[in-house]
Description:
heterodimer, A: mainly alpha, Rna Polymerase Sigma Factor, Chain: A, Arc Repressor Mutant, subunit A, 2 domains, 11 helices, about 0% strand, B: alpha+beta, five-stranded mixed β-sheet, four-stranded antiparallel β-sheet, 7 helices, 9 strands
Amino acid sequence: MMGGMTAASSDAPASGEAAASTTRASATGADLADLLRRSARGDEAAFAALYDATSRRLFGLVLRIVRDHAMSEEVTQEVYLDVWRQCARFDPARGSAMSWLMTIAHRSAVDRVRASEASRRRDDAHAATSLDVDFDTTAESAHASLEAQRVRRALTTLTDAQRSAVELAYLGGYTHTEVARLLDLPLGTAKTRIRDGLIRLRDTLGVPA
Amino acid sequence: MSPDLHHLSGAYAVDALDDTERASFEQHLAVCADCRAEAVELSATAHSLSSLAEATPPPSLRASVLAGIAQVRPLPPLTAENEAEPDVGGTVVPIRRRRRTAWFAAAAAAAVIAVGGVAWSPWSDDAGAPSPMARVAAAADATTVRNTQGGVTTQVAYSKQLGKAAISVKGLPPAPDGKTYQVWYVGAGGTITSAGLFGVDADGSGQALLAGEATPTDKVAVSVEPAGGSAQPTTDPLVVIPLV
């Protein structure tokens, strides 16, 4: 399946991907908010465009947390169905569309791994890591967005402990208690590291719209 | 507010709190605008990290998603009529007759709270996060019970699968100074257990995930208690709602 990424380029998603990278690079927020508004009126084409513009980001995050490929697809599908159902409830005055989507996705992924036993994720971790490599084709890393570079640079302003804590919590889906144990921090300090790290990241990146 | 709670905003933004911490922080958020603003910002900041994890989903997923949405009606926007409807696919079941335990007898005499209708704005939408109600109501087996009396609409969502319940109120005035709202489980045998404290914003709206495990025979009650909460209710319940 992963090897087929380029072979599958005749499918609609491939053209969607092109559109997606353009969208990401430009006025993502306003565009996405508009797509959500149209989706709320039952516009399936608008939702398809929303999917094309956000699915790499959303699926990638879910996959990173959940690890198991089939389960990640399942969670991603549930998230999009949930988004479709709820898009009339999105209020652009209260945060960006991307943030809204990713909040739903992150929580769903985290809920799933916590519910389905940590052992499973650890067992599959190795296989998933090799999958990641397969997915990370040259073509894709080419538009491995400017934002990723910006974020990577901003992460260097964090202390090692802050960066590890933030990454384990957000990309690893671990609780702050688990993070403390993983990093050999005194219990209760991981949540402070996470907050301090995020604050520094916010100040470096600027608050996303 | 308590510096301890303040420091949870980061962990909250990255979903690194356990259920109990999350519930109590959300109760705190309902009454702390600073933390609310910080949680929104830190959440948006955290999501920028997802740019590091991009991966292309298989084309078949796009097809499944689009086939899936074709069969689901998007929820209507929130309006005065439907604002307290369950957010996600829950079934609304009529409220059942109250069980007359000693406390419920008092319930009958509970003063009716008369407050005009106000805009429904659960704080959790500020962060763009699914509200406690939405999270519970999203469970496949979720049921939602709704009760309106004296201008106060109370809804309780419950999932047996999750063992969790969430409550939302609308039109409830903030608790008087030095007081707080406290939620209770009332078991079939009449045992009463705290399900946590409960804040209401200036609009009279609030939501909370109930602490502890909910069982189908429980009822959920709300009372006014001294700040910090009580071990057992000290005032008559304002409302009593069965979980199913």
